[in-house]
Amino acid sequence: MIYDFKDGLEYAKSLDKHDKLSHLRQRFYVNEDEIYMDGNSLGLSSRDAEDALDKMFQVWKKEAIRIWGADEGQYFNYSKKLAKKFKNLINADDEEIIFMGSITTNIHQALSTFYKPTNERYKIIVDELNFPSDIYATKSIIELKGYKVEDALIEINSRDGRTIQEEDIIAEMKDDVALILLPSVLYRSSQLLDMKKVTREAHERGILIGWDLAHSIGSVPHDFKGIDPDFAVWCTYKYLNGGPGATAGMYINKKHFGKSAGLKGWFGSKDESQFLMSHEFDQDRDANGWLLGTHNLFSMAPIDGSLDIFNEAGIKSIREKSLHITAYLMYLIDNKLTKYGYSVGNPREDSRRGGHVALEHEEAYRISLALRDNKVIPDYREPNVIRLAPIALYNTYEEVFILVGILENIVNNKEYEKYSLERVTVL
Ligand SMILES: *Cc1c(COP(=O)(O)O)cnc(C)c1O
């Protein structure tokens, strides 16, 4: 889409006035003294999340062990409750969705279920730009099955160090490939892959494929009925604002119901047999058969609250604003910051980008430190990327405008030069 923006603070304020989601900012705990641009790493807390967590504590306090039967058993079935609230974000059936663990554990669960190597078909395709934990999990399952990583793992190379070409992935889909694991949105460059096309090409060759939605969920709508992937995983603490370490999610396509879960645990039992305490596992009929242990209710309650905001706003409106506000940020970068050595490192087309802008600068590291001292919270990714995520639910156009002024000053006044180049872990 072609956007038509103008420079100036008054114009930014007028965009806020016309923002249909602006009323939702007050539901979040926004620190008005700073500009939070890191909702892609850890989303802000909300009153909705807080209320749900408080309520959970009260139920525990009052009911003790009876919590599992309280309120029509919704806590015993809490993953199912969250699945119902969540399903519109990926357009899937709630029976295909579960909440447990972290992305990493859920990749282990998915791969141990779907990676069934044979001597003819045993390779797994990943990409060289993916997040390390996804790769560690993939390598470990290859080793557990008795194959050699050097032989069985295919890492798709990037041509430009930022993005992955769909045709390069497809070119590697040979007869010896068993499975593919890819991110929907690349965590550094914000590239959104053509999930539908890549999934279709994989299936035409008899290859199973799963997606890691870490950097798209809650920001980009997904149509899983159209894409039809075999499985997917996501976390809930980034765009979904579920809180640090909140319980992750997993999707298992219903065509795989009835397959034996790679990892088994008693919460994966059918409801009617879970408490029979038999040593014969009686796996549940749908995705719930892939659950493992007792629901971590306090890491799930904030998601319950937070999802209400998503359903109220609607994921389509969220995506619309996200595309618009990130396009506005790119417009300001192009017009005001390129002369200071800044550039946009993410793809430009709406269909090829996620919810953050990858701002590149050779001094990105020291600039990111200076931003913090200017009360802007960005995040930095080696070697030269500052990720800036104006979040549809709580950031304003005015904040984006002010942010760009700060970025300009930091380089124009050489503010970054007072920081050491030596890397310290910034938490
Ligand atoms: C954030 C992120 C993770 C984190 O995994 P956890 O196990 O939930 O800590 C994994 N993969 C990707 C692509 C991520 O962006």
Task: Furnish the topology, listing elements before pairings.
Layout: H1 9-17, E1 35-36, H2 47-63, H3 70-73, H4 78-86, E2 97-99, H5 103-114, E3 123-127, H6 132-144, H7 149-152, E4 153-156, H8 166-171, E5 177-183, H9 195-204, E6 208-212, H10 224-227, E7 231-234, E8 249-252, H11 271-274, H12 297-313, H13 315-337, E9 343-344, E10 357-360, H14 364-373, E11 376-377, E12 379-381, E13 385-388, H15 397-412
Parallel strand pairs: 1-11, 3-4, 3-5, 5-6, 6-7
Antiparallel strand pairs: 2-8, 7-8, 9-10, 10-13, 12-13
Helix pairs in contact: 1-15, 2-12, 4-12, 5-6, 13-15
Bound molecules: pyridoxal-5'-phosphate.
Can you describe what's shown?
The chain is of the alpha/beta class and 427 residues long. It folds into 2 domains: 9-30 and 314-418, Aspartate Aminotransferase, domain 1 (Alpha-Beta Complex), CATH 3.90.1150.10; 50-312, Type I PLP-dependent aspartate aminotransferase-like (Major domain) (Aspartate Aminotransferase, domain 2, 3-Layer(aba) Sandwich). The chain has helices at 9-17, 47-63, 70-73, 78-86, 103-114, 132-144, 149-152, 166-171, 195-204, 224-227, 271-274, 297-313, 315-337, 364-373, 397-412, and strands at residues 35-36, 97-99, 123-127, 153-156, 177-183, 208-212, 231-234, 249-252, 343-344, 357-360, 376-377, 379-381, 385-388. It has a 7-stranded mixed β-sheet, with helices on both faces. A 4-stranded antiparallel β-sheet has the order 9-10-13-12, covered by helices on one side. The radius of gyration is 22 Å and the shape is globular. The model has no long low-confidence stretch (mean pLDDT 97). The structure holds pyridoxal-5'-phosphate (PLP). Pyridoxal-5'-phosphate is lined by residues 102-104, 131, 133-134, 183, 187, 212, 214-215, 235, 248.
